[in-house]
């Protein structure tokens, strides 16, 4: 599918604008603070249902406005598709409404049907240079966009983790929480098993497609296992600090360049090597999406 045009109303700094796109390559040129990145974010949002720079959703709506929308038209060999996202702001909350060809969709339905995009931005060097949560966020975003069950298990895990931490916070002052803790431990373990399995599966895909030009890469999964044995091992520490200390929320991923030996690019890679590693991830993201959906995503 190819992006033909996009219509923005009250999105970011735009009042009402329409943009047409070339089916092969579109270059966006403009002075600073004119909205180039905002336009790219609008394209990204029509696919991912969230922006890539927002800290609060109301920031997506133009200042002093309460409604906004993005309408993107895609073409395939025999059909046209209109993907639309409407924003309605009330007080400090924003409600999004998703539709395809005028038919309203739930968010997960919309994400399953919408054309996929791959974002490649300078800030993504943080996958290599940033803390483990940057890498977890990258993989969680990708896997959630291609697998609704992954997103569901991830949300379940994060919600249950917050509840378990609340129990640990109260543990010192109230009695009888052992049974409640056991319930959430069992629930979290089930969710964690699914998350770890899907993360490992994608890393296996990356390691099977480890070359880009003359360079070879590998990625290692530094798992933080959530199971009964580790829960017993960390129980006293968790009671003291009132926080869960194990689980996939503490996983990390290590990318290395493979030559005669493996070089940890997070610690020892030059900036150009780290950029090439990000390019390797993005190249394989395109290949992975094409393998699932049968067409190349928009880059």
From TrEMBL:
Pinpoint the Endonuclease GajA/Old nuclease/RecF-like AAA domain residues: 1-243
Pfam families according to UniProt = AAA_15 (PF13175)
Q: Which domain of life is it from?
A: Bacteria
Q: What Gene Ontology molecular-function terms does this entry list?
A: ATP binding; single-stranded DNA binding
User: InterPro entries under this entry?
Assistant: AAA_GajA/Old/RecF-like, DNA-binding_RecF, P-loop_NTPase, RecF_2
What UniProt keywords are attached to this protein's entry?
A: ATP-binding, Cytoplasm, DNA replication, DNA-binding, Nucleotide-binding
Q: Name one GO biological process term.
A: DNA replication
Under SUPFAM superfamilies, the record lists: P-loop containing nucleoside triphosphate hydrolases (SSF52540)
Question: Would I find Cytoplasm among this entry's keywords?
Answer: yes
What name goes with this protein?
Endonuclease GajA/Old nuclease/RecF-like AAA domain-containing protein
